[in-house]
Automatic annotation (TrEMBL):
Name by which UniProt lists this protein: Tetratricopeptide repeat-containing protein
Upper taxonomic lineage: Bacteria, Bacillati, Actinomycetota, Actinomycetes, Micrococcales
PANTHER family for this protein: AAA+ ATPASE DOMAIN-CONTAINING PROTEIN-RELATED, ATP/GTP-BINDING PROTEIN-RELATED
Amino acid sequence: MTGQADPVEEALAALARSERELGPDHPATLDALEDLADASGDSGDLDAVVQITRQLLAERERVLGATDHATLRTGEDLARALLDLGNIDDAVEVLETTLARLEGMADTGPEDTLEARFILADAAARSGEAAAAIELHRSVLADRDHLLGPDDGDTIRSRDALAAAYTTTGETERALSLLGQNVASLERALGDDHPETIAARDVLARASERSGNADYAAALRRRTHESLAQVLDPTDPEVLDALTELALVAARAGRFDDATGYVAKTLQIRWRTLGPDHPATIATQDQLAAIREAAEGR
């Protein structure tokens, strides 16, 4: 039985084949080079991603021109890769060049610069320039909300980024408002039980608890558990993990009776489905004991 093919090796083979059959300057060959960068990224080789994307940008500038759509998009991709590698100054230089090219085109509108501006805001946040990051993210969010609508995936991504920036400056209420808007957008666009909606609700729950609003966090955790229970088997580990999170929120809020009930239910299911010696069952037993001990010492 042979193992699964290495995606990077497959991408290298496809690139070599395209170079041989179509030539190094053919658009399909350049696309194959981009595929190699993507495969390298999926494998976690960030250095290779930067090296390949730099090469791709130079080739597309030469073959397609500096203001071709694919060239400009490659500039954005290179900036992202540089940020992921921690090369903030290089990323900003690439972004400024890309934005200058975009803004120098006669038919450029706000929608054409949105992603480059978003990455520039991310660069500011990563370099500790919180005020600049907030200003840039607010501008991008306003444009995305107007041009794409409040429920578009990119608009939601901008709200997440701005919320993170507000969190770093201690503007918790603004961050929570944005996270709440994202939950509402995802509920409208994807439904209450979609994994992305559940994940966004989880982010809001964590942020709410950190801000001291344990009751709201518990309500969100309860809704997450109910949503998961509707689409998964009640014994599914994800459903039980959500019930455990609900128990922990209740315990931290001092509602030990609720917390004990949630963990006892989880333990009963895990004991029945996994057995008493399973690590998850043992961990749940330990959680129940800890909550009971905390309740006795209150």
